[in-house]
Amino acid sequence: MGIKATSSKPLFCYSKLLCVSIIYLFTSFFLMFYTTIISPTNCLFRYSPNDPIQTPLFVYNSSYGEHKHALPTFRSSCNSPVYFTDYWNALKEISEFSENSTFLGSRNLRYIQGNADSFGGNFSTKKRFYYFNHGDDGIEVPCGFFKRFPVSNFDRIAMENCKGVVVISAIFNDHDKIRQPKGLGKETPYSVCFYMFVDDATLKGLQYHNLISTTSSDENSVGVWRIVKVAKEHLYENPAMNGIIPKYLVHRLFPNSKYSIWIDAKMQLVVDPFLLIHSLVVNEDVDMAISRHPFYVHTMEEAMATARWKKWWDVDGLKKQMETYCQNGLQPWTQEKPYPSDVPDSAIILRKHSVATNLFSCLLFNELEEFNPRDQLPFAYVRDLMNPKMKLNMFDVEVFEKVAVEYRHNIKNEGVSNPKVMPKKTKRGSCEFLVNGTGSKCDGYLLKMWGESQD
């Protein structure tokens, strides 16, 4: 008698639900492994340090609405993923460097002192361009402060005592909300200086929402941010230009700091500053890290968009600015340039306070005072023509969107008696903006940008 052959199924296959669950589990593990290890296009970030602060840094009044109107993002991957190191290693390395190194920018960079009608001195084009080539001869460089920066001595002393990493931002005309950074390590609030520069209108808004005291004349703070009042009547009429001072002259306001992070007030930082600096500046061995623009690579594209979308009211002034740059050597972006773009997104800027970075900041500020506070327009002009060259990391916009959340500006002044300064009416240009063939000094630039060649 033969033995009847039988086939036995695995036990888990007798239950269809169990079988499907196991298949789903293994598929999920594979996809997770692929997206985190194998996939070369995924932006990988450590969202927070090993021991992040879990409790809110500050409890806002419900009326303040600091997290209203966040802008959506649609990018989930990038070509240059960023890997953060361990928080404690980054903290130790940057702290030891800050404590043991001398001031990086003091060896070869000296600043012109004196008094002038404007904060920046209003130098001519020829004079500004003269300082682009900076050798070791100790020539003094114009770098603002031809009028006193109007902050209290109490704040000034505190700023000079910041000797490591400083994070700065500014709000003028109550244009934005103060937002607390997220993902901070336990030591970061005590090791990093956080400074927010504000004017009277912003200060009144904070007082209206009971976020700061109306009686304190010295130190005010909102969460990790130390609030510094700037008396804008002693500076520029344009609030945006006043915000340019801490944005680009941070090395002068904080002369003993070794690293800095500028973040526009419309942004909320969601990655610890030590991790950002260590990954984007220290590991890359650069002087500055900044995001490239998500759409434009040529300076002229940004200039045309500035005129088209009325980001600056004086179209003739924009034309004059670009013709000045073309006349003095600005070239469109090509693959021969060692940078992926000529146009940054300057909402976040990470710096090592080196000679090259400080010189770049001074030269760029001089251009902004001469023309307008649209800092993307002179960026490539200064970067490409200055000497010594600055080592620059222009990272992907996807990285930018992973390390910060962007919000809309304030829609209205809630309860603030002083209205915002209304922008000037856009001034129509005398002709179309830099049309090729009209004798513009930028004809050659435009031909190269459009891939043509001159006869």
Automatic annotation (TrEMBL):
Pfam families in the cross-refs: TOD1_MUCI70 (PF04765)
GO biological process, any: pollen tube growth
Domain of life: Eukaryota
An example Gene Ontology CC term for this record: Golgi apparatus
GO molecular function: N-acylsphingosine amidohydrolase activity
Transmembrane segments: 12-34
Record's keyword terms, sorted: Membrane, Transmembrane, Transmembrane helix
UniProt-recorded name of the protein: TOD1/MUCI70 glycosyltransferase-like domain-containing protein
Organism: Capsicum annuum (Capsicum pepper)
